[in-house]
Every structure is written in structure tokens, then in C-alpha cells.
Amino acid sequence: AKADGKNRWACYDAERNAREVARIALSAAMPAALERDEFYVEYQPIVRLPEGTLTGVEALVRWAHPEFGRLGPDRFIGLAEETGLIVQLGRSVLAKACAQAAEWAALGGVAPVVSVNLAARQVEEPGLVEDIARILREAGLPPTSLQLELTESAIMGTTGEPLDALRELVDLGVCVAIDDFGTGYSNLAYLRHLPVHALKIAGSFVVGLRADEPDSVDAQIVRALVSLAHTLGLGVIAEGVETRDQAERLSDIGCDSAQGWLYAKPGPPEEIVRWLV
Ligand code: C2E
Ligand code: CA
Ligand code: CA
User: Fold this and answer.
1) What DSSP designation does 111 have?
2) Is 81 in a helix, a strand, or coil?
3) How far is the CA of 128 from the centre of ligand 1 (A)?
4) Where is each EAL domain found (predicted)?
5) What DSSP element (H or E) covers 33?
6) Which helix (H) or strand (E) element contains residue 218?
7) Structure pTM?
8) Of all protein residues, whose CA lies closest to atom 4 belonging to ligand 1?
9) Tens digit of pLDDT at every position of the chain (277 positions)
10) How far away, in angstroms, is 13 Cα from ligand 3 center?
């Protein structure tokens, strides 16, 4: 029995080691990849409900890996947060997204607000406000055309100076949204004191919305989140909207905006141009 146990451990360890080696290799490759500019940004439309007109776009980073091809952020954002490289990577995403948004604005018409994800590490980094102010200036983008998305844990975990940084950004005119709202530990009492403009409802709540079950638990949760947001004077964006049925339910509930495959998958900036005309 003892030998058996040993073998199982050996087997488990081998698998785990292989995964760990791959992780470390990917992690180690990131600084050079950043240097070689292998990271690029895709954009996904955010539309107003019920009309379906474009109000914004979310910037989502990808890695064009020379060996493994296109890697999604779930493969490397966690690693970048661990090593701290997220600060530089995040800065590069911000710069790309702001430059792109300025290009769309130059095409005329109503420019979409560009929404960029911010990791906790970035919020804690001294100089964030100056960085973002410089990026906006260099891109020629008004601060009101930028929205930052932070998860509840990224916001709630920070006190003092990081919150001051967010306040300063809001004073500049930048918008702040809480990402994946409802999935973290929401300190609801705290919410009223936070410098935020909008809540993004996680797709995991949207999945359960169906026309034939208007009072399902998910529907009631979404209704409660929308009502909470509106009570606090915040906008609500639903994520992961895949069906017409879900969009209709969200619209009935009073959700302001939606994002998901029903409207468009994340894609290159050229695809957003078609939404502008
Ligand atoms: P997120 O911020 O919650 O982004 C939404 C994710 O849902 C994206 O995955 C998007 O492609 C996906 N999605 C959009 N519509 C649908 C839909 O209708 N159905 C389903 N099932 N999924 C949909 P993606 O691009 O793989 O990004 C994953 C996560 O990586 C993001 O989640 C975000 O937390 C993180 N991330 C992406 N870009 C950045 C970045 O530049 N900086 C940081 N810190 N995090 C990023
Ligand atoms: Ca997001
Ligand atoms: Ca989200």
C-alpha cells in the first residue's frame, strides 16, 4: 500500500511538474514578448438596450505567441499579475486602446467610450494617474472617452492611496466600472462611497435568463442588481449576452447596456468601424 501511494504521488507530481514548467516557461517568455510587441488588443462592442446602438467597446488583450499561436488572456494575465509585468503590459494595452479610440473619434460621429481592464497591481502602482493622464494626452483622447474596469476584489482590496488614485482619475473625467459585479465579495455599504459610474453584471447571471421563466432565481438576482445600481445612480452593463431572449429579458428588467456574442465577438479594430457608420 505504501509503494502504491508513492507511485500515485510520483505520477501526480510528474503531471503537475509538467504544467508548472509550462507555466514558468510562458511567464519567463513574457518580458521579451512585450519587448517584441507580441501582445495586441481586440475590441468587443457594448450596445445600448433596447436599440442595440454602439455606446462603447471593451479592449481585450491577446498574445500572438510565435510558437503556440494566439493565446487568450486567461492563459497569461494571472502570470503577469504574479510577476508584476502586468503593470507594463497594462500600460501598453491602455496606450493601444486610447490611440485606437482616438482614431475612431477622428472618423466623425459619436465616438465609443473605450473600456480597459485594470488589474489590482496597476491600481496600487504609484504613478498610475500620471501614466494615464500622459497616455490620454499622447493619444489625444478626452478622459471622458476612457472607462476603467476593475473587479470588486481589485477595488475592495484597496484602501487609502489606491482609492485616492481612482478618485483623481474620476476627477479627470475618466469613468470607472466594477467588473463581474455580483461574483466577488460585494461590500454593498461601501459601494456608495466608491468613485464608480457603472456595474458590469457577470455573464454567469445572464446565462439563466429565459423568456419562459421570468421569475427564475437568476432573473431575480439581475433585477436586484439593476435596481441597486439605479438606486445608487450607476449604469448597468450586462456581459455574456448570447441570445435575443436574454437581451429582451435584460431590456425588460431595465438594464442599460449589453455586451456579448449576440452583438459581436471581440475582433480587430476594423470591425468596430462598421458600427460607426
Ligand atoms: P472580462 O473582463 O470579464 O471580459 C469578458 C470576457 O468574456 C472576454 O473573455 C470575452 O471575450 C468574453 N465574452 C464576451 N462575450 C461573450 C459571450 O457572449 N459569451 C461568453 N461565453 N463569453 C463572452 P477574454 O477576452 O478571454 O478575457 C478574459 C478575461 O481576461 C477578462 O474577463 C479580463 O478579466 C481579463 N483581461 C482581458 N484583457 C485584459 C487586460 O488588458 N488587462 C487585464 N488586467 N485583464 C484583462
Ligand atoms: Ca472586463
Ligand atoms: Ca467581466
Assistant:
1) P
2) helix
3) 22
4) 23-277
5) helix 2-35
6) helix 217-231
7) 0.94
8) 60
9) 445 555 666 666 888 888 888 889 999 999 999 999 999 999 999 999 999 999 999 999 999 999 999 999 999 999 999 999 999 999 999 999 999 999 999 998 778 999 999 999 999 999 999 999 999 999 999 999 999 999 988 887 666 677 899 999 999 999 999 999 988 876 777 788 889 999 999 999 999 998 888 889 999 999 999 999 999 999 999 999 999 999 999 999 999 999 999 999 999 999 999 999 7
10) 34
